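Hello,

I think I submitted the 2-acetamido-2-deoxy-beta-D-glucopyranose job twice by accident. Can you confirm which output corresponds to this input? Input:
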Amino acid sequence: MYLRSHLLAVSGFCIEDQQSLLLQLKNNEFKFDASWSTKLEGHVVGLDLSWEFIDGELHNSSALFCFQHLQNLDLSHNYFNSSISPAIGNLKNLVFLNLSDNSFVGKVPMEISQLKNLVSLDLPSSSLKLEIPNLQQLVQNLTKIRYLYLDYVKISAQGKDWSNALLAIPSLEEVSMMGCNLFGPIDSSLERLENLSKLYLDSNNLSSIVPESFAKLKKLTILSLQDCNLRGDFPHKIFQIETLSFISILHNDNLHGSLPYFPLNGSLEILVVRKTNFTGPIPSSLFVLPSIAYVDLSFNHFDGEIKPDMFQSHQYLDILDLSYNNLSMVIDANLSSFPNIFHLGLASCNLTEFPAFLRNHSPMVYSLDLSNNHIQGLIPHWIWKLQGLQWLNLSINYLTGFESMKNLTNNFYVLDLHSNELQGRIPVFSSVAYLDCSSHNFNSIIPHNIGTHLSSTFFLSLSENKFHGHIPRSLCEASLLNELDLSNNSFKGTIPACLIESEMLWVLSLGDNKLTGKIPNSFPKSCWLKALDIHENQLSGLIPESLARCKYLEMLNLGNNHIEGHFPCLLKKISSLRVMVLGGNRLEGPIECFDNNGTWPVLQIIDLSFNNFSGFLPTRTLTTWEAMS
Ligand SMILES: *[C@@H]1O[C@H](CO)[C@@H](O)[C@H](O)[C@H]1NC(C)=O
Ligand SMILES: *[C@@H]1O[C@H](CO)[C@@H](O)[C@H](O)[C@H]1NC(C)=O
Ligand SMILES: *[C@@H]1O[C@H](CO)[C@@H](O)[C@H](O)[C@H]1NC(C)=O
Ligand SMILES: *[C@@H]1O[C@H](CO)[C@@H](O)[C@H](O)[C@H]1NC(C)=O
Ligand SMILES: *[C@@H]1O[C@H](CO)[C@@H](O)[C@H](O)[C@H]1NC(C)=O
Ligand SMILES: *[C@@H]1O[C@H](CO)[C@@H](O)[C@H](O)[C@H]1NC(C)=O
Ligand SMILES: *[C@@H]1O[C@H](CO)[C@@H](O)[C@H](O)[C@H]1NC(C)=O
Ligand SMILES: *[C@@H]1O[C@H](CO)[C@@H](O)[C@H](O)[C@H]1NC(C)=O
Ligand SMILES: *[C@@H]1O[C@H](CO)[C@@H](O)[C@H](O)[C@H]1NC(C)=O
Ligand SMILES: *[C@@H]1O[C@H](CO)[C@@H](O)[C@H](O)[C@H]1NC(C)=O
Ligand SMILES: *[C@@H]1O[C@H](CO)[C@@H](O)[C@H](O)[C@H]1NC(C)=O
Ligand SMILES: *[C@@H]1O[C@H](CO)[C@@H](O)[C@H](O)[C@H]1NC(C)=O
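Support: Only one job matched these inputs. Its output is below.
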């Protein structure tokens, strides 16, 4: 629907008699002084058409640009896909302009720079660019602007240039220029923006230090500098800005620093220092801040001991992630309380036992990551009964078994147990969506009815165990399964045809087992497979013709089986193939396909070795495999 027809539709809602009643009130009944009354004057001053599913183009001639008294125009969250018409300049009274969340393309028109009354300008779009005007020219005369949102608009400016442009608008309160192709350095004179409260510059390659003068921004509440290639030492004083409630410097690998003392009267709620190069201890002052709710210090070089009693005064710490540092968590079972927490990340925290303080106080924990530690022995029963737990990662430890699996009521969403030393029979987890039980010593057959418990499962890996016996047909009842990995076991018998018939599987890995028989020729018409790996088995027969239906296939590994027949010309239809391994089989004949229109444009690896192919690899064939050159 085009905007023009949409406006008609909107006015159509205003039932005609109601329109005339309003006009009657104004024209015949109410007496008013037209020079003072604004609401009765009759001009449209605000138009909010956000979230209206409008698509198409916004032309120069659109009736929209006739609303010359508009002060507030919100077209955000629609599907406009044209350039921004220069006719926008007609709307000289605009105070709020929101065009965000559309698909506007092309250059931002010069005419926007003439809307001198603008207080708020919101233009985010990845297909817009600033050339003429550049940022400086755009905002030069917009001296009233307080809210400037230009995310993903290609601004492409050096540090001095974008900083000077901003400094020309001393009234700025909120600036967001994420992914704008801005370069460094960050200009220390930005401290002069005395009312700056929110600054988002994420995803720009600033290659810059952060100037200490930012600490003089006395009203700063949000500072977001994620993925900015920051360097040098991050100034302590910035963390200590009293008004600061959110700071994220996530993913700045070259940024050094340490955490300072946090004054008790601070406002910090969210502190994200993930993936930087910070060192030193953690200051306990951080965790006594009553406001703190979210702390992510993972992937750094913090060191020293962590005592959970640091956190106990909190009623509700939303997120605490200390994973992948050089920290040592000291388990204190006598802790008197522990806060409710949404996510607790203690991966690689030198844990040698389960954090028993979680058992004693039974806090609400939604997500718990204890992976990459040195925890030995049995998985305790209480861990399965933690209130609200849905996401549990115990991978890469030295766990050997399960204490008890009785009376479980939690419905796990993600359960990652890979790379432990679990033995015996595999426990059955109902309604788990993601289950990784790879790399253990499970040495049994899989319960024949396992599939009936996996009706919500989309990922299942049992690879690298010692499972034997047949692949249970009941796995086909796991009707949501996208990814099934049974590789590196000792499964025998045939591949259940119903697995091949699945219209849900993206990845099927059955490699390195003892499977025999033919590959079922029953790939469905709507085959979604991207990867099929059945190498290192004893499969025989032909490459099934129906495999050509898998038109999204990227990886095919049939290596080291007893497969017969000719070079699989029929697979030429699959243009997405990147890797094809046929080596170590009994294929024969020439490696050439006649009367075939397909090529493998992205094929990168092809292994045909150890077969009985005859003749040479024809040059013509090679030249059609474009990606290999
Ligand atoms: C905008 O979308 C409409 C239909 O939604 C389409 O007909 C038109 O070609 C698109 N214009 C551009 C410039 O992409
Ligand atoms: C809109 O008007 C500008 C000049 O005001 C002109 O350059 C442009 O071609 C016009 N666009 C359309 C689609 O008519
Ligand atoms: C613009 O609209 C979007 C989507 O409706 C909204 O999220 C955003 O806050 C608005 N911008 C301003 C400055 O109000
Ligand atoms: C800003 O205003 C000055 C004075 O009115 C004018 O000379 C200049 O061209 C304007 N700049 C832009 C980019 O519109
Ligand atoms: C900053 O905000 C204060 C209070 O709202 C206001 O009085 C002052 O004029 C603003 N400063 C600038 C440069 O706009
Ligand atoms: C970021 O900028 C630096 C210096 O200008 C440059 O060396 C580096 O390659 C850039 N990084 C990326 C990812 O573009
Ligand atoms: C991180 O800091 C250490 C010294 O504290 C230094 O040796 C190392 O090179 C730094 N890493 C990066 C990526 O800057
Ligand atoms: C906050 O505490 C610091 C010292 O911890 C003090 O210097 C500052 O004046 C205090 N601010 C307020 C507003 O109380
Ligand atoms: C990690 O901490 C230990 C003991 O606290 C220390 O000996 C070691 O040097 C630290 N390693 C790194 C890489 O900082
Ligand atoms: C890990 O904990 C052990 C004691 O359990 C300690 O000896 C060792 O230093 C700790 N390692 C680090 C890196 O802190
Ligand atoms: C399971 O529940 C039964 C009955 O409520 C109880 O007797 C038994 O002790 C529970 N088992 C475990 C391991 O909690
Ligand atoms: C090759 O293309 C021709 C015409 O485009 C078509 O008639 C023929 O069936 C195609 N051959 C194969 C094997 O797809």
